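Tokens help. Consider this.
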Amino acid sequence: MPSTPDTTSTSVPEETVPGPPDPDDATEQTEAPALEITLLTEPADGVPDVLTTNAELARAVRQLSAGTGPVAVDAERASGYRYGQRTYLVQLRREGTGTVLIDPVPLPDLSTVSDALEGVEWIFHAASQDLPGLAEQNLHASRVFDTELGARLLGLDRVGLAAVVAELLGLGLAKEHSAVDWSTRPLPDEWLRYAALDVEVLIELRNIMAARLEAAGKLGWAEQEFEAVRTMAPPAPRVDPWRRVHGVHGLRDRRMLAVVRELWIARDRLGQSRDIAPGRVLPDRAIIAAATALPRSVGELTRVHAFGGPATRRRAALWQRAIDIALALPESELPDTKGPRTDAPPPPKVWADRDPDAAARLAYARAGMARLSEAHSVPLENLLQPDLLRRVCWRPPAETTLAAVEERLREGGARAWQVELTAGLLFEALGEHA
């Protein structure tokens, strides 16, 4: 990959725009020049054609195999437009290969790409967002470098790709197409330009970030985090997914909750059958409005303000059938207002009443974690998963020893560096408030 262009480079068209002045220098702005960011507007090698045939893919696989060094990888989805998290564009860039754009709709099996890159490090920004969708195309990384996780471990204030690229490389990436409908065909040229730029500087960003992590003594931590995200198991199916409808926690009537559940089921089935994001089929606010009104007929339903639009009125009979199912359920089949039983601790706000010792343990541990976070410039949630911290404080090991605490953390998925940093603190918290 070519080195980062400067303002005199002709290989990458660009423009220079001033950034904001440092707020700490507000009283002496004449002594501190404004930060300048070089805005990237075109990929160094231009925007490549999108690969859509097996013959084109085979040529690209040979080129990727002949390349050197790590490969930068990104994927685009149609979140909020289509059902699920399917990948609609795959971008790769490798030294000696250049940038490759692949349309996984006509090319759903990309296992040959994985074979060509066996043993090669894959560079992502926020790998956890892309890896599940890529796996559906049989794309599996041998090794991962995640620049978003690296930015977190370095303690950067902002960890989005554009912000990290600006801070470490002094380059600007436009992000205006990040939330578009990537299932659109053909993809507009300006979207493809955006997609190509997303992998344009990832390799250089990785190299600078790795050097900074090593200088900070955190490269080993980062490598453990990268491997953890690479091997992360798919999440278990959510129990009662309908309880995620926005506003449902304000309902305390079981019949109303049943309406939410049946409408959610009907919406999800329709969204899946038509490949449309469920929120576009029927918004959450409409579900809550119907559950609150409990209409007994299509006429009553369409008088609910949220169901007055043309699309919802056309499907009013479908929604009313779902509501009728909920209204006809016997009391024994209505959902519980408290939700399903889990092994998770209760909300911390009730700990003081239910178990004062546990509340004291959590307060002690949180204060210590805040100190560790500041000392190592690592966000609290990256020092230790908050849910794991709460679980250990709510239900400590049967034997309060340092070894037992370390084992509990490992069982909960903590990496070795996290155990080393936090086990002693948690051991103290458990001992102080046994």
